[in-house]
Amino acid sequence: MLTALTRVVSRSLASCELTWLPRQQIDIDLAIEQHKQYEQLLAAMGVHVISLPEQPELPDAVFVEDPLIVFDEVAIVTCMGAPTRRAESETLAEAISAFRPVRVILDPATIEGGDVMRIGCDVFVGLSTRTNAAGVQQLTRELEPFGYRITPVEVRGCLHLKSACCSMGDGKILANKDWLDTAPLRDYEIVGVALDEPGAANILRIGDTILMPASFPHTQRIVRREGLEVRTVDISELMKAEAAITCSSVIFEAL
């Protein structure tokens, strides 16, 4: 069964880590409601949602994708590039241990799940402000025995690799070409986001449906022209914390 780990929004979200955006006032009640709608939409798309309790003292804890990366064979607990977020990992490791063996990335290597894009056996890892070369090397050592091919990708101008590109399926990648080196993706067809929506590349494919933020209508039309159904959700308050559509869940097959 397709399963998602999520976590309740922390009421301290306004104190979140920020790298690329100026700090804005966040309506916490609205952020909580938007996240609930996100979870409800995942459930409506056939995903079994496991919602973990709030971690009030950890502002970014709702963004469960960064501390945990799940593959078919193993779960990787990351060493995040934002040191203040590393305490988020413990309860996620406990939650995923019921489904996968757990491996841990060790400091000084850093890696965050938002920098990891898997397409079949290809695993692209963004070299960003949050993920370093040592992180790529440790991940490679963990995954190569299972037949994965790990390829680093230079990221520029955005937080994570999946801020710049995400798999659409069917050999296609939705991308903002200005935010990454596309050369390592040469075996895939690159579909560009709308020029006036540079942050629209982060999408989540479930079945034949693409889940996207409601705030990118022009890129939604581009995705629909590729023959895919699009469903949207408003995550405007979460986006003030540099959130995107993938970062609030870890989705995997419960084997």
Short synopsis of the structure:
The chain is α/β, with parallel strands linked by helices. It has helices at 28-44, 89-96, 133-143, 161-164, 217-225, 236-239, and strands at 2-7, 48-52, 68-70, 75-77, 102-104, 116-119, 122-127, 149-154, 165-169, 172-175, 189-192, 204-206, 209-213, 229-233, 250-253.
Question: Could you explain how this protein is built, in words?
Answer:
The mean pLDDT is 97. It is globular, with a radius of gyration of 17 Å. It is built from six helices and 15 strands. A three-stranded mixed sheet has the order 2-1-15, sandwiched between helices. The chain has a three-stranded mixed sheet with strand order 3-4-5, covered by helices on one side. It has a three-stranded mixed sheet with strand order 6-7-8, covered by helices on one side. The longest helix is centred in the first third of the chain and has 17 residues, at 28-44. The protein is of the alpha/beta class and 255 residues long. Helices cover 21% and strands 26% of the residues. It has a single domain (2-253), classed as L-arginine/glycine Amidinotransferase, Chain A (5-stranded Propeller). The protein has helices at 28-44, 89-96, 133-143, 161-164, 217-225, 236-239, and strands at 2-7, 48-52, 68-70, 75-77, 102-104, 116-119, 122-127, 149-154, 165-169, 172-175, 189-192, 204-206, 209-213, 229-233, 250-253. The chain starts with a strand and ends with a strand.
